[in-house]
Design goal:
By secondary structure, the chain is α+β, with helices and mostly antiparallel strands. The chain has 2 domains: about 140 residues, PurM-like, N-terminal domain (60s Ribosomal Protein L30, Chain: A); about 160 residues, PurM-like C-terminal domain (Phosphoribosyl-aminoimidazole Synthetase, Chain A, domain 2, Alpha-Beta Complex), CATH 3.90.650.10. The chain has 11 helices and 12 strands. It has a 6-stranded mixed β-sheet, with helices on both faces. It has a 4-stranded mixed β-sheet with strand order 3-6-4-5, covered by helices on one side. It binds adenosine-5'-diphosphate and magnesium ion. The site of adenosine-5'-diphosphate has 13 residues, from strand 4 and strand 5.
Length: about 325
């Protein structure tokens, strides 16, 4: 089957009428540029992320999941700065034209874009090794953006959701681990699937980011693992932190499947969680928890002394060196 670039865009990515649904979008797909109207009192939050086949996802990942996750990672950045999603651009590099792959990819992408009311307003389509780049644009009241700088000694460090699921899912799918025995009953199979879903279909914490506007002193999303991402807050805010490792939240599936000797490694260095890590002044913790709900869990405190310390349940400092994910580490 032959299809040209413009038919491909029209067929898979243009959603007529969608752009008209949003007042702030004056022009969507189809011209030299999209046109956005500024929103009074707001600043535009803009972020871009690239997913490369073989590096960010394996060749056997379903196209539907790739579509979802490509957008989810950018929405997670919008969430972390407290922005409301507005529009996104999709730059797609494809090795070949594959109709069923494209249909599945577009379905996954649009499932999340519809759920989060973000509109595809343009992009670029080229041929080459499979690579997906998404630039997302959001809006946030200027003084309420959740930046990395701003954490103060005494602030609680909180995380949303649970940590380590994606890293554990990756580990369980890698040989030589055999899961055959563990998965023999229906309930453990469902738990296993929920782990896999956390890896393939991460939930960007958009509502939580928006609710923490004007409350959190600093925020970041956890894409490379708590150990690596927290350091960005520490550097930007010029503070240190103590994390109580026993308080790191685990999902039921994580509790069921993890090897306890690997718990901290998975939860702090694993990456791909797409949860938020936020700092909350002590006098505002109750307000933050009421705004976000049970999903927000304190796991440590910001300290004046710089550096990152992991504490056991007795408050003793653990002698561990944990790192986040780094593409250029050899
Ligand atoms: P130009 O050559 O002027 O950059 P293109 O031919 O690359 O324009 O794209 C034509 C229109 O289609 C533009 O509005 C562009 O934003 C949009 N577009 C191209 N590729 C994609 C894509 N993968 N998803 C969404 N819109 C796209
Ligand atoms: Mg172009």
């Amino acid at each position: 089957m032959h299809i040209n670039e413009f038919d491909l865009i029209r067929q898979y990515f243009d959603q007529p009428g969608l752009a008209d649904a949003a007042d702030s979008i004056a022009l969507g797909i189809g011209d030299d540029c999209a046109l956005l109207r500024p929103i009074a009192g707001h600043v535009a939050a803009i972020t871009t992320d690239t997913l490369v086949a073989g590096r960010h996802f394996s060749a056997d990942t379903p196209a539907h999941a790739i579509g979802w996750k490509s957008l989810a990672v950018s929405l997670s950045d919008l969430a972390a700065i407290g922005a409301t999603p507005q529009a996104f651009l999709l730059a797609l590099t494809l090795p070949e034209f594959n109709a069923s792959w494209l249909a599945d990819f577009a379905a996954g992408l649009h499932a999340l874009s519809n759920e989060t009311s973000i509109h595809l307003i343009g992009g670029d389509t080229t041929r080459g090794p499979l690579t997906i780049n998404i630039t997302a644009i959001g809006q946030v009241p200027e003084m309420q953006a959740l930046r990395r700088a701003g954490a103060k000694p005494g602030d609680f460090v909180c995380v949303t959701g649970a940590l380590g699921d994606a890293a554990l899912a990756l580990r369980l799918t890698k040989p030589p681990l055999s899961l055959a025995d563990d998965l023999s009953d229906a309930s453990s199979f469902a738990l296993y699937e929920s782990l896999q879903k956390r890896l393939d279909y991460p939930t960007p914490r958009l509502a939580e980011g928006i609710r923490l506007r004007g409350i959190a002193s600093a925020a970041i999303d956890l894409s490379d693992g708590l150990a690596g991402d927290l350091r960005h807050i520490l550097d930007a805010s010029n503070v240190g932190v103590e994390i109580n490792v026993d308080d790191l939240p685990m999902s039921p599936a994580f509790e069921w499947f993890h090897d306890h000797r690997q718990r901290l490694q998975l939860q702090a260095s694993g990456g791909d969680d797409y949860e938020l890590c936020v700092c909350i002044p002590p006098q505002r913790l109750a307000e933050a928890q009421a705004a976000v709900g049970h999903l927000l869990k304190p796991v440590g405190r910001i300290t004046a002394r710089t550096g990152l310390r992991w504490l056991d349940h007795n408050g003793a400092v653990l002698n561990v060196e944990l790192k986040g994910y780094d593409h250029f580490r050899s």
